[in-house]
Recover the amino acids of this structure.
């Protein structure tokens, strides 16, 4: 039944795909009178087409690409149709009559037999499609007593004896030879065999059908020795296949569309002796004009673009310039409108001739015809009309008027960013939520305001609870809330000035493992590799960015910390029969502290986001940025936290902690490079939640989570070498606890990379507890 239905569908689609019944002569390049073809010939014209392929008359009439070369033919006199009985070629210069006849499959000149209208039409098409002639003009010559003769005047394309390129600077002539002689590669040697594909035509009309299988003849291809071409790195004289203007048009298209030289022009001079000199202007900007903003802001836009008059204008440079502008001036955006594309001019190559025979070819720009559009009213529902979206399509905000670049920009609308929080921990179970930020831009770049917040709700799933403590179970299922506001003052160099209030379950282990990786493995195998505690309070912060890559900041924190217990049983896909993952206790009570920081990131750009809703002294405020330049990059930060809070005995005590984390990426080749990291921390009278510990991902891989804990200082060094999709790494670390440093611990492993962030890692510990089975993870975030 399925096969029958498929067959019926196929037949129906085939029937729908057939052309409409022929209402007359389909080819407009040859004018034929109804009296020319007898009625029986008209009835059989479509299916017969006379199998005269060996003689060169079978051709696909639907291809009218030669209509600019092939002129109209008159085949009647005083209403009386004539049937030519002979064929004569005129105007040949380099080629001979026998050569042309053999190429297109015409009978020899001495053979005399009538030529039907269909044969004449196919013959003229084949002549025009050879690419050898600039003009094919047929006419029928009739004498008083002799038979009618088909006379075809042929104008050969120019014959080239030499080719030179001038004016190239960034490009080499070798890069344009292929475009100049592109069609010459289609010509074959006389003894070259060509494959012919059979064509099957199925026609269905009501209850009748027909099936026809034909072997069409390919278009005539001139022998290669006839043509101007490039062989073995040298030029060979011959006829310019397709004409010089078409060849120069391909060169111009290659320059503009393939190589991206949007202002490039091509001109040429062809002497009567066949010497072709091609002059290429790669195209330089005359000026840059900014529209959509005032003069003062337009000056800043031009400076951010870094496109100067006199520069060679490339599409890639324009794209990077707009990205740079939107990065440095994030409160502006390029105007995305399809209407801008209609303003761009079209170009073509124009030929001019002098009396002595010299031909000149120039590039001429013409306004693009605007397409007719019907007025219509559209209604769009969604966030995009109100908030900025990344899914906009259209132009890049650039248009060209001659050699003048026009940049179209406008103030950026409010930007709403909403992300899912798929929280899953040992102390909450599954707790889905959302985080969002709403940013309001000032078109004059004075004050930009950001509102941000988030929440996640622990769900009652799987009967999870804290054994014997229903009140604690209920407390840990409270809704977790965060909210804050901040402003950016570019004139003062202030990147952040704001505050946040919160009541949520937090962790200080974000430097070890990314959020999604921790949630994923908590759900999958009951291994979140993080410790959590409840944090209630506020944070006030100010961040100063005095250079593109540097920032300094200060935070004031006032929090109440409380310990949390793991729920039983674990809510995980595997290992749910194991004991719940342990969650370390914290010093409970009220903490007050101040944090100062200094950060550097060589890859950061002016528009790089700074700050996070979940900010901690252990992580950077700069978001991780992959540099498209593939250059060595250094990034790092130092934070010092000084505070007061409950100590081990419950009484308030002062503490301080200093953390430094530096990483360097050293690209060697494409997707090959070395990454290095050094992290060190030390402190005094640290609360339990701030004590140092090593072990686990990515803090001494191959070892158990926080296997070496309870320290006031630690040192961790990591090195990773990546070669395309493969990598090897080593971690070396030690913890200072109880007045002594532990032995240096070494972990080795390998990785398989599926992109810049996604990777599979396997690690082994190198000590007396080493075993053959590795610790393995598929990780989706990079923390260094």
């Amino acid at each position: 039944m399925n096969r029958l239905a498929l067959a019926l569908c196929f037949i129906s689609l085939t029937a729908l795909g057939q052309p409409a019944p022929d209402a007359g002569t389909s080819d407009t390049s040859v004018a034929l009178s109804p009296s020319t073809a007898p009625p029986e010939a008209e009835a059989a014209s479509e299916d017969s087409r006379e199998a005269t392929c060996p003689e060169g008359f079978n051709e696909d009439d639907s291809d009218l690409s030669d209509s600019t070369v092939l002129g109209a033919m008159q085949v009647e006199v005083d209403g009386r149709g004539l049937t030519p009985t002979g064929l004569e070629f005129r105007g040949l210069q380099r080629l001979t009559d026998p050569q042309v006849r053999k190429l297109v499959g015409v009978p020899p000149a001495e053979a005399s037999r009538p030529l039907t209208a269909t044969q004449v039409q196919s013959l003229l098409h084949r002549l025009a499609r050879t690419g050898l002639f600039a003009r094919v003009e047929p006419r029928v010559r009739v004498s008083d007593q002799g038979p009618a003769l088909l006379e075809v005047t042929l104008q050969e394309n120019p014959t080239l004896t030499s080719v030179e390129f001038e004016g190239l600077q960034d490009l080499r002539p070798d890069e344009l030879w292929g475009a100049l002689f592109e069609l010459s590669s289609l010509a074959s040697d006389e003894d070259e065999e060509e494959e012919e594909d059979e064509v099957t035509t199925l026609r269905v009309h009501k209850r009748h059908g027909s099936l026809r299988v034909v072997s069409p003849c390919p278009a005539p291809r001139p022998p290669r020795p006839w043509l101007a071409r490039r062989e073995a790195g040298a030029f060979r004289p011959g006829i310019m296949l397709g004409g010089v203007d078409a060849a120069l048009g391909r060169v111009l298209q290659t320059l503009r569309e393939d190589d991206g030289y949007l202002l490039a022009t091509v001109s040429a001079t062809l002497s009567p002796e066949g010497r072709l000199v091609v002059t290429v202007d790669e195209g330089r900007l005359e000026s840059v004009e900014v529209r959509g903003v005032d003069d003062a802001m337009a000056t800043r836009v031009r400076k951010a673009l870094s496109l100067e008059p006199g520069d060679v204008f490339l599409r890639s440079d324009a794209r990077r310039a707009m990205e740079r502008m939107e990065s440095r001036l994030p409160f502006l955006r390029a105007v995305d409108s399809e209407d801008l594309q209609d303003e761009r001019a079209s170009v073509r190559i124009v030929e001019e001739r002098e009396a002595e025979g010299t031909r000149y070819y120039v590039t001429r720009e013409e306004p693009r015809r605007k397409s007719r559009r019907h007025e219509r009213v559209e209604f769009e529902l969604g966030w995009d009309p109100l908030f900025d979206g990344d899914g906009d399509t259209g132009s890049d905000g650039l248009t060209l008027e001659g050699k003048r670049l026009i940049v179209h920009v406008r103030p950026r609308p409010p930007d709403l960013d909403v992300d899912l929080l798929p929280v899953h921990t040992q102390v909450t179970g599954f707790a889905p939520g959302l985080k969002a930020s709403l940013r309001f831009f000032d078109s004059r770049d004075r004050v930009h305001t950001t509102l941000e917040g988030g929440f996640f709700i622990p769900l009652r799933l799987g009967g999870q609870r804290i054994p014997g403590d229903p009140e604690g179970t209920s407390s840990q299922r409270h809704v977790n809330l965060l909210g804050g506001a901040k402003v950016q003052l570019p004139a003062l160099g202030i990147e952040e000035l704001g505050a946040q209030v919160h009541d949520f379950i937090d962790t200080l282990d974000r430097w070890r493992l990314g959020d999604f990786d921790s949630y994923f493995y908590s759900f999958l195998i009951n291994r979140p590799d993080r410790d959590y505690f409840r944090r209630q309070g506020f944070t006030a912060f100010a961040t100063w960015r005095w250079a593109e890559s540097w920032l300094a900041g200060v935070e004031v924190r006032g929090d109440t910390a409380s310990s949390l217990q793991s729920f039983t049983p674990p809510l995980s896909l595997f290992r749910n029969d194991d004991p719940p993952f342990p969650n370390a206790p914290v010093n409970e009570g009220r903490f007050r502290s101040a944090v100062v920081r200094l950060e550097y990131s060589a890859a950061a750009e002016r528009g790089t986001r700074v700050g996070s809703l979940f900010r901690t002294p252990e992580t950077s405020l700069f978001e991780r940025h992959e540099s498209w330049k593939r250059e060595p990059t250094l990034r790092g930060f130092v934070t010092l936290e000084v505070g007061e809070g409950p100590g081990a005995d419950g009484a308030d005590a002062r503490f301080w902690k200093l953390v430094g984390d530096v990483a360097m990426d050293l690209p060697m080749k494409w997707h090959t490079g070395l990454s290095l990291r050094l992290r060190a921390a030390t402190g005094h009278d640290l609360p339990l939640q701030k004590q140092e510990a090593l072990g686990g991902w990515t803090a001494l891989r191959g070892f158990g989570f926080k296997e070496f804990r309870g320290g006031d200082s630690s040192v961790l060094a990591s090195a990773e070498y990546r070669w395309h999709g493969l990598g090897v790494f080593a971690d070396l670390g030690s913890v200072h606890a109880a007045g002594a440093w532990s032995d240096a611990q070494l972990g080795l492993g390998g990785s398989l990379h599926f992109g810049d962030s996604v990777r599979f890692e396997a690690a082994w510990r190198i000590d007396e507890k080493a075993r053959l089975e590795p610790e393995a993870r598929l990780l989706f975030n990079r923390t260094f």
About this structure: DSSP finds eleven helices and 39 strands in the chain. Residues 1-52, 54-67, 185-196, 373-395 have pLDDT under 50 and may be disordered. The domain at 26-156+188-221 is CATH 3.10.20.310 (Ubiquitin-like (UB roll)).
